[in-house]
Amino acid sequence: MDNLRLNVSLLRRRVPNLTSAAKSIGLRPATVSNLCTGKIPIERAEVKTLVALASLAQCSLDELILRGESVEMIETKIKALDLFAPIAKGGTVGLVARPGMGQLVLLGELFYRLKQHGYSTVLLKPEEDYPELADMLEFADVIADSIEKAYKEITALGVSKDILYAADRSYVLTGEIFKLQDLFHQANLQSVTTFLLDLKGAAVDEELPYGPLETLLYFDADLAARHNFPAINPIYSTSSVLEGAYLDQNHHFTQQRAQKLLRRYRELRSLVTARGLDAIPSVEKETYHRGERLEAYLTQPFYVAEAYTGVKGESVDLNTTLHDVRKILDGGVDAQDLKSLTYIGKL
Question: N or C terminus: which one in the chain shows less Cβ crowding within 10 Å?
C-alpha cells in the first residue's frame, strides 16, 4: 500500500481555526491532531472523519490525502527527538510546554546545531516583551519584528535555502501565521520548517493550540522537575515522519518498544515513589530498572548550555541511538550504574 498521510499544509491554509471548526461538525480535536502527526494512520481513520475534514478544507479526498510521498526527516542528533518525534522538513513543529521546561533551550540548540549544516535561522519576535528570549537572539541569523519583515527576509534567502523559522503562538491566535505560510506556499518555498512555541505556557491547556502539525513536541513537567533534559514526553510527542518513510526500517519498531517500556515504567514509578520499590511485583522490577536506564540515556548535554553546565555538548546519530536503545531494551546495560547513563552521548 502506498504511504498515506494528511495534507497538513493544505489544512493549515484552508482551516486556520481548526479546533472550533472540527468541534462544530462533531470531530474531536485530539483525533484530528493525531491524524495530522501520524499517531493515527490514515488507514485506521473513519471515512466519515476524512470526508468531514475534506469538507472543512473545501477540497477533494485526493487533495486531502497524499499518496506515495515520503516525509523527509531533519536529523538533529538529539536522541529523544529523533527517536520519538522526528522533525519533518518543511513542516510545522509545535512546542507545548509551560515556562521553565526548557523549550527555549531546545529551540536554541536546534538553531545552533542545524546552522552547522547550512540552515538559515529566522526568529519572529512577539509584540510583547519576553526577557527570556534574549538568549535566543545569538542563534538567529535574522530577527524580525513583524510578519512583513519575516516574509521579506525569508524570501530574500531564496527557494533553494533550507530555513528554520520560529514564532510565538500569539501570531497563531491572530491568524497571521497562516497567512504567512500561505505566502510561502505561493512563493514555492518548500524548505521552510516552522517552529511554533508558546511563551505564556497556555498551549498545555488547549486542544490543537497551533492548528494542524507535522511534529508535536510535548514537554514533561516531571522530567523537567527532575532536571532530565531535554524534557520531551516520550508518550505524547509524535511526528508524521514515523508514519511516512523511515530512514531505518527498525525506527518505528524500536520507537514503539521504547514507548511501551516507558509507559509501564511511568506507572510503576508512581507506585515506587509513593510506597517504595518493594511495592511492585518482582516480575515488574526488570521493567522498572530498564525504564530508569532508558530515561537516563535519553538525557543529553547541549552545546548551548556548556557555559552553564560545564558539560561538553554531545551529538548522537539516529542509527547509533536506535542501536543503543535496542541494547537497553534487551537488557544489555542492566548491570550498568544509572549515573553512568545520565547526560552522555552514545553508550
Answer: N
